[in-house]
Amino acid sequence: MTLSVSDLNRIARETLETSFPPLWVRGELSNVTHAPSGHIYFTLKDAGAQVRCTLWRSRAQRLSISLRAGMQVELRAQVTLYEPRGDYQLSVESVREAGVGHLFDAFVRLKAKLEAEGLFANDKKRSPPHYPRGVAIISSPQAAALKDVCASFARRAPHLKLVLLPTPVQGDGAGARIAAALDRLARIAPVKGLDVVVLVRGGGSIEDLWAFNEEVVARAIRRCALPVISGVGHETDFTIADFAADLRATTPTAAAELASAGFYAAPDLLDRRHIAMQRAMQRRLNTLQQQTDRIALRLTHPRQRLADSRAAVTALARRMRMAMASHTQTLARQNMHLGARLNALRPTPACYRPAIDALQNALQRNIRRQLSQRRTQLDALAAHLDHLNPEAVLSRGYSITRDEHGHILRDAAATATNRDITVQLHRGKLSARVIQQQPAIDSD
């Protein structure tokens, strides 16, 4: 098979872009050109080699530094090929000055260490289930990324069970908390029916994302009982967690889309295949019909052609009437179905009347019983009050004696001889004078 130059360059470009994921490259800038279109073209070189680079306007506008010749930079870029000229080049996504500090060096060292151990090996990666029963989400409850993830699941697969394992995603101790949440899944996943976990956080600086660059998180991801999808930061952010995860998403929302991809794509897949079959059949029928029509036009008499045209119009009219009748019947069935549902949901007060009557009778019986109990209590209290009434005591022959000041006398020594006293009987009072005192005699 002989290829054209265009085909050769296209295949070479696709091979380069497939074989090389976006990567970081360090070097010195030269031949920096700012095009009127807003794109930036330059060469990245070191002591032994150089490569052409292109920074498109959409990404150049987000640069926080000004590019100039002689700068030492680190580029995140996609290896590609410019097909019209066959030039091998880098499509730059982001640029930063070389030597960003100890964090990046620590990131590189840890990545190299874990990669040497085989922790990132593709043969250890697990494929998330196409149709999971439930999804565990590890993120901060206050994270904006969590809202985006939940909204994506609600839109694409609202039936999916979502279980949040709240953890801090930034600050001291966040890495250990994330690792602990991943380890918890071995215990709760079978109980809650979870099949996949998404680890999400919004974008930020390398310091903000550092919890996901800790070794304890990477090892917890690999020993996690469920496949892990990482959605940390923006598209250009890479963390150790991304390399350790079974699947890396460019954003938190993309992580939710990957976890729900099977459910979301199933209806569209069926519809597309159905439509594709219909279109293929229709195209085939149309092609054959056109061929037949062309042959018929060369062979038939004009009178016959007119008759055929009338027959075709008649057939189309018949098909249109049948289609309209079918559509009308469908609408009528839908109307009947909706009417039946409406009638089923219509309230029927009469069916609640027996229950209301029963409640009313029970209420009346309860009121009568309560009134009877209260009358009985009232009679008992009245009898008790009568028993304590001093008038009732006087009726049994007792009396109340008061001194001249009206004070009740309880002891004979409380008054003196020749003093006036008053004796109150059950009926009436007596006035008397003390002529003799007889003090009480102690019983002991």
Automatic annotation (TrEMBL):
It is found in: Cytoplasm. Residues 119-432 form the Exonuclease VII large subunit C-terminal domain. Residues 3-95 form the OB-fold nucleic acid binding domain. Its main location: cytoplasm. InterPro entries: Exonuc_VII_L, Exonuc_VII_lsu_C, OB-fold_nuc-bd_dom. Keywords: Cytoplasm, Exonuclease, Hydrolase, Nuclease. It catalyses: Exonucleolytic cleavage in either 5'- to 3'- or 3'- to 5'-direction to yield nucleoside 5'-phosphates. GO terms for biological process: DNA catabolic process. One of its GO terms (molecular function) is exodeoxyribonuclease VII activity. Its EC number is 3.1.11.6. GO terms for cellular component: cytoplasm; exodeoxyribonuclease VII complex. It holds the Pfam family Exonuc_VII_L. Signal peptide: none annotated. NCBIfam families: xseA (TIGR00237). Bidirectionally degrades single-stranded DNA into large acid-insoluble oligonucleotides, which are then degraded further into small acid-soluble oligonucleotides. Heterooligomer composed of large and small subunits. Belongs to the XseA family. This is Exodeoxyribonuclease 7 large subunit. It comes from Denitromonas halophila. The lineage of its organism: Bacteria, Pseudomonadati, Pseudomonadota, Betaproteobacteria, Rhodocyclales. The gene is xseA.
